[in-house]
């Protein structure tokens, strides 16, 4: 699976539940490899913060703030208050005390020369997410947004646009700085090549899945296997978040159909859309409609089960049947 933050992590929980409730012997011991987006990563106060990797790790490891969807449960913000008292910037990014421990470990390992993939593995030793979590690349790839507020064009970090400005300033374009020279992290291409199929969860198609596919070699590898995606757009709107602002910046309409066409029939084999989008037709892509709101563990599991069914059909791999 290629995953961003919240949408990816929630879907993964459903996928693990769906695999637990299947009868085919072939699905017991199934391994899930998650290739996480690192385009959102940012250095703050000397610490490297990887929001999407951490959201997946905390969600599957039981440490997530459930209401918020990101950050640690039962968080406190003493360090942030103290930093603000010193006038330290930025103050628009909330780093909690518990969360900060993760970033301190990461920063220390980075300073000691460890690549992000090894650091992620070490952090997962504590959280035991039950999946193999790989960053898309060990190289620094950062999403920047070109904005123009009248004083000429400037590039700001994706997090500044997203968190500070709530994507309310028009983005002229979105660039993945460093992508052209980046290499997939160790294990990424091997995992894709040996996978029965690849699932694209309802993650942001531009700044999450799009940045992963932008690492040279990954898109080609994914296109060579069976790919089933879950639409992050329902009835012409993103379910939560501001994915529409990202789609607008790259000139793609906010619809389940336009997102599938943007991924392309060379990449995508199957596409799950909400019942509100049952009319969706994309040449070369098999479309199925079902309720796509991940509102409860049960509905999320049903979406994942449908993805397994479709992936099984399209790839010829026996994905078993749901026992629910
Ligand atoms: P982020 O890193 O926190 O932005 O999370 P992702 O990259 O995983 O993308 C979140 C996207 O998932 C949002 O833009 C929504 O469009 C989509 N999304 C969130 N909740 C749901 C849901 O319940 N159902 C579906 N189909 N999509 C969702
Ligand atoms: Ca993200």
UniProtKB/TrEMBL annotation:
Transmembrane segments: none annotated. The keyword Magnesium applies. Keywords: Magnesium, Transferase. Gene3D superfamilies: CofD-like domain, CofD-like domains. The keyword Magnesium applies. Pfam families: CofD. This is 2-phospho-L-lactate transferase. It comes from Nocardiopsis ansamitocini.
């Amino acid at each position: 699976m290629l995953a961003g933050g919240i949408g990816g992590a929630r879907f993964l929980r459903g996928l693990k539940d769906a695999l637990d409730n299947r009868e085919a012997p072939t699905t017991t011991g199934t391994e899930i490899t998650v290739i996480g987006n690192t385009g959102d990563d940012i250095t703050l106060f000397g610490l490297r913060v990887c929001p999407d990797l951490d959201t997946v790790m905390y969600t599957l490891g039981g440490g997530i703030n459930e209401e918020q969807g990101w950050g640690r449960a039962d968080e406190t913000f003493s360090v942030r208050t103290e930093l603000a008292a010193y006038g330290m910037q930025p103050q628009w990014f909330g780093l909690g005390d518990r969360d900060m421990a993760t970033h301190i470990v990461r920063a220390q390992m980075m300073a000691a020369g460890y690549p992000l993939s090894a650091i992620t593995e070490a952090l997962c030793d504590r959280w035991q997410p039950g999946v193999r979590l790989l960053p898309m690349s060990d190289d620094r790839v950062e999403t920047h947004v070109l904005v123009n507020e009248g004083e000429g064009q400037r590039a700001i970090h994706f997090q500044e646009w997203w968190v500070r400005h709530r994507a309310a300033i028009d983005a002229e374009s979105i660039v993945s700085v460093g992508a052209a020279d980046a290499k997939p992290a160790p294990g990424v291409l091997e995992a894709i090549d040996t996978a029965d199929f690849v699932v694209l969860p309802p993650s942001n198609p531009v700044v999450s899945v799009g940045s992963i596919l932008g690492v040279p070699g990954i898109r080609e590898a994914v296109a060579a296997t069976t790919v089933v995606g879950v639409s992050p757009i329902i009835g012409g709107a993103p379910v939560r978040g501001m994915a529409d602002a990202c789609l607008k910046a790259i000139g793609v309409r906010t619809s389940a159909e336009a997102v599938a066409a943007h991924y392309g029939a060379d990449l995508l084999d199957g596409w799950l859309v909400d019942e509100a989008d049952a009319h969706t037709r994309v040449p070369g892509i098999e479309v199925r409609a079902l309720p796509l709101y991940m509102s409860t563990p049960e509905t999320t599991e049903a979406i994942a089960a449908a993805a397994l069914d479709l992936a099984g059909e399209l790839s010829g791999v026996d994905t078993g049947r749901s026992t629910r």
